[in-house]
Amino acid sequence: xxxxxxxxxxxxxxxxxxxxxxxxxxxxxxxxxxxxxxxxxxxxxxxxxxxxxxxxxxxxxxxxxxxxxxxxxxxxxxxxxxxxxxxxxxxxxxxxxxxxxxxxxxxxxxxxxxxxxxxxxxxxxxxxxxxxxxxxxxxxxxxxxxxxxxxxxxxxxxxxxxxxxxxxxxxxxxxxxxxxxxxxxxxxxxxxxxxxxxxxxxxxxxxxxxxxxxxxxxxxxxxxxxxxxxxxxxxxxxxxxxxxxxxxxxxxxxxxxxxxxxxxxxxxxxxxxxxxxxxxxxxxxxxxxxxxxxxxxxxxxxxxxxxxxxxxxxxxxxxxxxxxxxxxxxxxxxxxxxxxxxxxxxxxxxxx
Length: 352
Prior knowledge:
Blueprint: E1 2-7, H1 23-40, E2 44-47, H2 60-68, E3 75-82, H3 88-101, E4 106-111, H4 117-121, H5 129-145, E5 148-151, E6 159-163, E7 175-179, H6 183-192, E8 195-199, H7 209-221, E9 231-239, H8 243-261, H9 272-278, E10 286-288, H10 290-304, E11 308-312, H11 320-351
Parallel strand pairs: 1-2, 1-11, 2-3, 3-4, 4-7, 7-8, 8-9, 9-10, 9-11
Antiparallel strand pairs: 5-6
Pfam families: Bac_luciferase
Domain Luciferase-like: 1-303
Protein name: LLM class flavin-dependent oxidoreductase
């Protein structure tokens, strides 16, 4: 199994000091986190896209290109690209360029987006939310497969023998569809035969099992082979030397993050008791000792049979020092065990 981390680059006041670091410092921290993850041997680093003043990243390929120059082997992914409000040709060119400068490490994870600001910002109609997403997946995949493309759709001008340049370092840029709980999105990923990335941010992970089932079933019905289908799990995580320490360290920042981004709904601040319940052993919030994180990942592996786990750690104004310590534990204590155990499980399955 591949193990990695991702960030959305939120700009949230530190609950202990009340201070917000500037976007420039936040971006430097993101680049440093990626460098640390690469040096520690993690497999994937992702950067998400938002178009709000409380996030530092609006252009993932630019940030990932900067990261590519201070890393050597780690895969570089968008987590996610808001595909409904970006031209697929421009997106393909940006990530093909990233793939070239990184010697074949670029990936796209495309989602519909948790916020809707980008629709008016880039001149798209929110009523076309689903149609734009599906059409743009279709076009991106055609661009990915062909140097010259003839294509016609509903929401942009046609392409007639258009030269699609540059071509990436890889044969094709790996492409995943990100889902937050929608069976329709999982079905769409299966129809196109893309990877499936599930954002499981809390609660019982078993509720996501039907998404994986419909994804694989639709993909097989659409003529794709099971060996080509990839599933990834993403979610919030923090690792400490002990579970108690991890919870004590992470609670103020997790509660702060939840409160900051749910203030428009008028939610009350999360209590410690609620946090402890949300981060229990059978839940999808990965907060604990290395052993507890290992057990959670392997438990979900039995459920989903997924090939990748990516953790989001740097939320709610948490100091970079704590994030760096958690990355180190993920890379040195968690990842080797998870890789070994999932490899053994896969080999045993192949022998049956």
